[in-house]
Amino acid sequence: MDEINFFPNDLEIKDQKIILRLDLNVPIKNKVIEDDTRITLCLPFINRLIEKKAKIIIISHLGRPKGNVPDLSLIPIYKYLKDALKTNVYFFRGTFDGETKEKFSHLKGGEVILIENIRFFKEETEDGQSFSKKLGELGDIYINDAFSCSHRKQASMHSITKFVKKSYAGPLLKKEIMAINLVIKNKKEPVTCIIGGSKISTKINVITNLIKKVNNIVIVGAMANNFFVHKNLKVGKSLIEKNTKETIANIYKKAEEHNCKILIPEDCMVGTDFEGTGKNKNLDEIQENEMILDIGFNTIKKIQKKINESNTVLWNGPAGYFENKNFLKGTLSIAENISKNTIEKSLISILGGGDTLAAINKSNEKLTFSHLSTAGGAFLEYLEGKDLPGISVLK
């Protein structure tokens, strides 16, 4: 596999125009940023480029607009950057034509220009060549620091690299790749992967790829319901997917071939609806009117034991319906146990996915992990062993 071209720290970039692709796709409500995590992660690198007197052109997107949608403008992000960065920050909302390059030439070393939501241009999502050329010609160096968008074949991630002299992966992207490689390549065994969430169809390829590489896979969340059905257990009105019997039989077969243990819950918390309270039950006691909404006490203990025996843990997807605090216990117990082992036994812990992060944010304890990934789709596709378009062009 070719090496990814990471941005070298000692590169002389004074007065060079740098196109920096970031993921500043933050939740905004009524023009107010609700969570600035993604922006604050980008600030140290932007500041480094400012100190080195580079001319910085930032490209990002927000949501999935069809055309120019005022609610998805990057203006709140522009205002945020204007306050956070100790330099001149400009906002560009024009179109890309013959004169754009001339307008950008007034940028001085150490100044920043943020381009309006790149997805306002339909050519972005089409990965259009002439649009990519217009973007690429604005800079001398291209840096992709948006791992979470790198699974998309879009102009500012993919074809742009053909039209810039040099292309690199930024420090955040490097950190994401190194972290996931700790699970699939340079691993410290035993490696345990905890996979949750609701649908097995979205994670089947990840599970199949991980079976070949890790020692244990723990299935939690509504996904586990399909495994119960496979074992002819009654799950009441729990969420299940149709036609998964063959898929699951195949998972067990592959696991046996590769000597990977598959663990599924042995008890659960059930409720009669999503909003109510829960009861702990064994799997053979579930009534017609009940649904499984979290893992049970014995399962929590079993998973804790497995985490304690591991040197590396990857976790993606909550263990239950965490939106209701009555069904949050399973997810939080996993989070707290992984954190404890990370602090006390230097466990390598990698957590990914929006739902996982939203769930652990409900903990009152200060939790510590080796790496938290804000990337959803890209995180899973990289785990699947796929070549991500935004990364393959940086090799």
Describe the structure.
This protein is an alpha/beta fold. It has 2 domains: 17-169, Phosphoglycerate kinase, N-terminal domain (Rossmann fold, 3-Layer(aba) Sandwich); 177-383, Phosphoglycerate kinase, N-terminal domain (Rossmann fold), CATH 3.40.50. 33% of the residues lie in helices and 17% in strands. It has 14 helices and 17 strands. The strands form 4 sheets. Strands 5-6-4-1-7-8 form a 6-stranded parallel beta sheet. A 6-stranded parallel beta sheet has the order 11-10-9-15-16-17, with helices on both faces. Helix 7 packs parallel to helix 9 (245-257) and helix 10 runs parallel beside helix 11 (329-344). The longest helix is centred in the last third of the chain and has 16 residues, at 329-344. The model has no long low-confidence stretch (mean pLDDT 94).
